[in-house]
TrEMBL record, chain A:
Keywords: ATP synthesis, Cell membrane, CF(0), Hydrogen ion transport, Ion transport, Membrane, Signal, Transmembrane, Transmembrane helix, Transport. PANTHER family: ATP SYNTHASE SUBUNIT A. The chain crosses the membrane at residues 94-111, 118-135, 155-175, 182-205, 217-235, 244-265, 277-304. It is a multi-pass membrane protein. GO terms for cellular component: plasma membrane; proton-transporting ATP synthase complex. It holds the Pfam family ATP-synt_A. Coiled coil: none annotated. Its main location: membrane. This is ATP synthase subunit a. Key component of the proton channel; it plays a direct role in the translocation of protons across the membrane. One of its GO terms (molecular function) is proton-transporting ATP synthase activity, rotational mechanism. It is found in: Cell membrane; Membrane. Residues 1-18 form the signal peptide.
Automatic annotation (TrEMBL), chain B:
Pfam families: ATP-synt_B. It comes from Myxococcus xanthus. It comes from the Bacteria. This is ATP synthase subunit b. InterPro entries: ATP_synth_b/b'su_bac/chlpt, ATP_synth_F0_bsu_bac, ATP_synthase_B_chain. The keyword Nucleus does not apply. The keyword Aminoacyl-tRNA synthetase does not apply. One of its GO terms (cellular component) is plasma membrane. Its main location: membrane. It is a single-pass membrane protein. Belongs to the ATPase B chain family.
Length: 334, 184
């Protein structure tokens, strides 16, 4: 909640100062947290910021090809209405790939250890195994159960580590946070959504799954219950999407904004206050990087567990719904 | 309201379908790759370790129970052996005692016998010696008597007399010789 308020406050400040400020701090902040079709980097000891433009990849969806709409600024907007699927790379896509490569490299170096020794050696292998065991025991098996839990462990592990690496990469200077982008978090939630539905259908079959949508109430209540349940299917991944996105974005905006205060107030002395604050927020963001990866994975496991648990309590529907409300409260503290 | 205008003006909440696509592709590829190369091996290793730990604990428990049983067996065996040893010792002492007593009795008996036979021998020898002394005393007396009366007497008559005289002597050697001397 606090984070959301800070986000709104910074957005307010952004609009308030965008007009008058010479240094356009809010514009700078927004520019740095949103996605862009180019990658910016600074070469030390040279003032101009270099930009690497990504090629435009427009996939035509219609037979007569793709003709991007042009805006008044001369930008191409390849929308679905124009029959285009814009697969152009962007800053966040590249950051996501970088995170994926780092993740794979890390796991190949430390995860791929001597098969004859059952005990990990060294800090890296131990940390990885600790996290793997945490995800397996505390998230998968606790939320999904002993029988079905291990089946979803690879998905949960990938989600956890992938999000963690994207979050952490965003904290490296010069990099960007891919998880601070709605499209990325939405795609991750789509994976959770699909797996959750598959888990439910696997557990009770398609008939039981559809029957579950009626909520187990009397047929005359179905016109109310079915839309509610149907919406409920999508609110969970939507909450996942927004939570991860807002948390990552807000942290970075706060971080930038604290430093931007120096330029907004226009006096170097402000740095004495804002830099320690920014440092504290940075440490908090390191923590949040783990927490958000944990929360996303934990809620995914919880949703999968609810799908799996359909087999156990058809009639006891209220129990299955008790889980997320409990954890929404938990997530808000974070 | 300023908020919707900010959101509309910025790209903050813009959802690019392309990025969704790339995220899905990346996530699925990463998940498949890591499942093969990282999660599978790590999880199987962990499971193997858990299995080994639980089996180790199980076997340790079993071995402990076995050892305890062995220890108890050993203890009873030792107690048994100790008891047997004590029993044997007791029996040995008893036997020794009996043997010693037997030996003592036997040796006592032998000594007794030896003493008896020695006494008999002594008695025999004494009787013989006494007889010898007697006969020598008779001869001596006769010789002495002959010399005293300086005449030869009828041998048999004299002899009978001497013998009669000797018969009157006390049985012990010293008193005999004394009486011989007295008679002489």
């Amino acid at each position: 909640m606090r984070k959301a308020m800070v986000l709104f406050a910074s957005l307010f400040a952004a609009t308030a100062w965008a007009a008058g400020s010479e240094d356009d701090v809010p514009g700078y902040i927004l520019h740095h947290v949103v996605d862009s079709p180019y990658l910016e980097f600074e070469v030390p000891l040279s003032t101009p910021i270099k930009a690497l433009d990504f090629p435009k990849w427009h996939v035509p969806l219609k037979a007569n090809g793709c003709a991007p709409r042009m805006t008044e600024h001369g930008e191409e907007i390849p929308g679905f209405t124009e029959g285009c699927l814009d697969l152009s790379l962007s800053k966040h896509a590249v950051m996501m790939w970088l995170a994926a490569l780092l993740l794979i490299a890390t796991l190949l170096i430390w995860g791929n250890r001597d098969k004859t020794k059952l005990v990990p050696r060294g800090a890296g292998a131990n940390i990885i195994e600790m996290l793997v065991l945490f995800v397996r025991d505390e998230l998968a098996i606790k939320n999904i159960g002993k029988e079905e839990g291990p089946r979803y462990v690879p998905f949960l592990l990938t989600a956890f580590f992938f999000i963690l690496f994207m979050n952490m990469l965003g904290l490296v200077p010069g990099m960007a946070t891919a998880t601070g982008n709605l499209a990325v978090t939405a795609a991750l939630s789509i994976c959770t959504f699909v797996i959750t539905q598959v888990a439910g259908i696997r557990a009770v079959g398609l008939g039981g799954y559809l029957k579950h949508l009626t909520g187990g109430v009397a047929p005359w209540l179905w016109p109310i219950m079915v839309p509610v349940e149907f919406l409920g299917l999508f609110t969970k991944p939507f909450a996942l999407t927004m939570r991860l996105f807002a948390n990552m974005l807000a942290g970075h905006i706060v971080l930038f904004f604290l430093l931007g205060l120096i330029f907004i107030l226009g006096h170097p002395a402000v740095a004495a206050v804002s830099v320690p604050f920014a440092f504290a927020i940075y440490l908090l963001e390191l923590f949040v990087a783990f927490v958000q990866a944990y929360v996303f994975t934990m809620l995914s496991a919880l949703f999968i567990g609810m799908g799996v648990a359909m087999a156990h309590h058809h009639d006891d529907h209220g129990h299955a719904e008790a889980g997320p409300s409990h954890d929404h409260g938990k997530a808000h503290h974070v | 309201m300023f908020l919707p205008s900010v959101l509309a003006a910025s790209n903050l909440v813009k959802v690019q379908p392309g990025l969704i696509f790339w995220t899905l592709v990346t996530f699925i590829l990463v998940a498949i790759f890591l499942k093969m190369k990282a999660w599978g091996p790590i999880l199987s290793l962990v499971e193997e370790r858990e299995k080994q730990i639980s089996s180790s604990i199980e076997s340790a428990k079993r071995e402990r129970a076995e050892a305890e049983k062995l220890l108890a067996d050993q203890k009873t065996a030792i107690a048994e052996a100790r008891r047997e040893a004590a029993e044997m010792m007791r029996r040995n002492t008893q036997e020794m005692e009996k043997f010693r007593e037997e030996l003592m009795a036997k040796s006592r008996k032998e000594a007794e016998e030896l003493k008896l036979s020695a006494r008999r021998e002594i008695d025999e020898q004494k009787a013989k010696a006494i007889a010898e002394v007697r006969s020598m005393a008779v001869d001596l007396a006769m010789e002495v008597a002959g010399k005293l009366i300086s005449e030869r007497m009828d041998d048999s008559k004299q002899r009978a007399l001497a013998e009669q005289f000797v018969q009157g002597l006390p049985l012990t050697g010293t008193s005999a010789s004394g009486s011989v001397r007295r008679t002489a």
